[in-house]
Amino acid sequence: MTFSRDTISSKHIDALATTPQAASSFLSPATQQSVELPDTSARVSYRQISSYIEARIERGDWQAHERLPSVRQLSRDSGMHRLTVFKAYQHLKTQGTIYARSKSGYYVAPPAVHTLTNENELEPALFEGTMNELHRLPARYQFSQALIDPNLLPNHYFTEYTKKVFDLYPKLLGTYAHVQGDLELRELLARYFSQHSRFYLEPEELLITSGAQQAIFLIAEAWIRPGDYVLVESPTYATALDVFRQKGARFLEVSTDADGYNMEQIEQLMRQYRPRLFYVNPTFHNPTGLCIPAEQRKQLVDLAAQHQCLLIEDDTCSDMYFGAAPPPPLFAYDTEGYTVYIRSFSKYISPGLRIACIAARQPWMQMLISCKSLTDGGTPLLNQKVFLHYFMSDRLHRHLDTLRIALRIRMETMQTELQQSNWHYIEPQGGLNLWVELPPELSVSRLLSHALTEGISFVPGSLFDYGKRPSQHIRLSFSFANETLIQQGMRELIRIADEL
Amino acid sequence: MTFSRDTISSKHIDALATTPQAASSFLSPATQQSVELPDTSARVSYRQISSYIEARIERGDWQAHERLPSVRQLSRDSGMHRLTVFKAYQHLKTQGTIYARSKSGYYVAPPAVHTLTNENELEPALFEGTMNELHRLPARYQFSQALIDPNLLPNHYFTEYTKKVFDLYPKLLGTYAHVQGDLELRELLARYFSQHSRFYLEPEELLITSGAQQAIFLIAEAWIRPGDYVLVESPTYATALDVFRQKGARFLEVSTDADGYNMEQIEQLMRQYRPRLFYVNPTFHNPTGLCIPAEQRKQLVDLAAQHQCLLIEDDTCSDMYFGAAPPPPLFAYDTEGYTVYIRSFSKYISPGLRIACIAARQPWMQMLISCKSLTDGGTPLLNQKVFLHYFMSDRLHRHLDTLRIALRIRMETMQTELQQSNWHYIEPQGGLNLWVELPPELSVSRLLSHALTEGISFVPGSLFDYGKRPSQHIRLSFSFANETLIQQGMRELIRIADEL
After folding, report:
1. A367-372 mean pLDDT
2. What is the CATH classification number for the domain harbouring A430?
3. Chain A from 336 to 375: CB within 8 A of any B CB
4. Do B365 and B495 lie in a common domain?
5. How far is the CA of A371 from the CAs of A223, A309, B105, B422, in angstroms?
């Protein structure tokens, strides 16, 4: 029995069910032997249907991107309950064998990128996924995730603090948190900002969030309506773009270079389009590592107030500097209350806790609290108390000093290797990444696909662009891999580029 | 110097600033003595302006709901920086002395409900706030929050488990969680549901959320677009109504009584309006305590599939039964995949952890994961691992048995007291509340305001109605106060009602 390579029609399935040959092949396509229909236990039978479908795909009856029979058809033809067939498809979808299209049905999935590596004569398939999909690919030389190596985090000490916290608050796990966040933590952070970031606020002007990601989401939820203009830096943080896009934002881009912003361009865009907000990352910018000078910070907050455009200041790396500490955040220069400040501590203290905060004046704060209240009712108290006790310890400051040195060494290791290439970058003053420009003749997407097959990951610059336009830039994170891996991985990456 | 009682005009302020008398009174209205303008330290001066405004309000110059001078005016007139004036207003707003209206300015706040209690000849002001505002009022007899008394939770044992978890996963705090939730936890929950709730799913069909509140939010975010029809039970959980309302839902209500749903009404509404979803709470319904019989559960999942209406099944109390265990959830009857199941464990295990989950078939699950990814990137790993190790312990099952008995005793204590009244209720088979109908001549809002002044809180039935229509019902939670407090508080409440 043969099957055509194009879309499976209901005729095929009918034939499959009504001829004895087809009926027997239904559950054992490889051997063509008759097998009994499975018993009524759904847990067994859906696996049998799955195996049948897998075998058909393996044999080439159903090819990549070909549509599979509908649940209803396969149920009728096999005599199985529809739920059983449905579960089989779910199972295959989960393991990546097939995929679903909304309202259209199930299709055979193409083989994944990394399974192509055996056939070393072939050009690997180009990577076309999102940032998250890229991060999920296995990589021995991990230069794509701007995360701090867990080995550089104070895990042991942190664990000790956590245990103490339970002795301090024996009913911690039985208590709901205030929606705005634990008052003790907000008071501590207000004091911290006045001492370290040169701005003053009341605990009521702080909202504790579950990571910077939630902070960005709450801001988009509060203020972006479909069709609103949003100013973004070019390039900028890919995930923020995803959040704003989902809320229906129209993007306007602001170019940045080593001198900072083009202020005239910003003024003109604000005047012409009256954007709802400007998402900025002025301190050790992701991905470029740039730091906006103090003078431009003052100008920007004035412009924003004048044009009533909220500045959303994302600050996740200001403690990760290699030379002098950066200027104070925009929020510290703002006398008009148009800056909303996101400060994350997750990356370099405790990714497992997910603690960040938003500082904002009224009426903005009240709007954010309403959104937080609907979104999750408040960040868990456990996480806030654990964070609080570590954050106020001397140990944290020693950790930060050590971490800065460790990151600097890793950055320099990467830079040393880059000297063997003709690739360019601007020396960052802080942060976790190098933003590297490749020579025009080198294809970034080919380099990435070849690198992935060798277990090296990096992020192509196009993912930091709101329109995903091609770019000769790549982001190389030096914070996750240790020096040995950075050395080996970078040598290998440059070798691959030379061969291309 | 006198001020008119109506809106303060700019003329007042100009006068205030230009006459020597006004200028001197600016910062010391009570004594009329001249004081020097504060120095440049913003932290000092905003407090001085605050005190000035407070003194004016106390003196009666500015009355409740009167508009205050704008920030710009007060800044010009006082010679203070606008930010300083702004901060003074923020400070007063935070402490409840004044309130703000969007784009209109600041107004004098009326005295709070509980400050009226001194004047015992006066009728207390009617409570007109939201559920959250009600919960924030101090109450000695706490019958408004459907929370479990922290003294009934296994705090000590839980703390011990938490400490062990850190020994098991020493790098727990340095690790990000998977956006869908920890795989070990999802595998455990999948096994748990197959054993306890009679439904089978893959770990890929589960999403871990930060409490049931976030689960409801993600569902609304994924599926409700402005103008969509949403079916809700009448009455239903107030906070879910708030979330759906914020997404622009139009509500259609389904009446419930001791026999369950009116199935014909549901069918007619589904046929006529094609609602996007039906939010249901079939097991020990909040607030009524009703439990939908198995037969109606089957009918409902069939209807939903037929009309392609998602059933959002909120299940937070199914372990809190007093007699027989309830029937399996709707999800267990659903062979078509139209039920999305929310299961929360926060209430009776660990409010401080905020762990819940959503079970859903594809393609729904994939849509929820996308929303979760944008919303917060994943529930913190710490909370998931702590929960997991407690959840799989024998200790949990002993805790549940004890808790059921403790809750039953509290419920019976409340019922005994209710025998002294002519109030009606349907005996609940589980849950945390009594849904009590007051006699038609008794005003629920007057009862509430008088009760609040005596430190007794309950939730008026109108808050469980999508249109906040008046209702003769009230919700009395018996899970937070202990037996002595229930006895005293209920006697007092019935006495107040009798006097009215």
Report:
1. 94
2. 3.90.1150.10
3. 336-337, 350-354, 361-363, 373-375
4. no
5. 10, 20, 22, 41
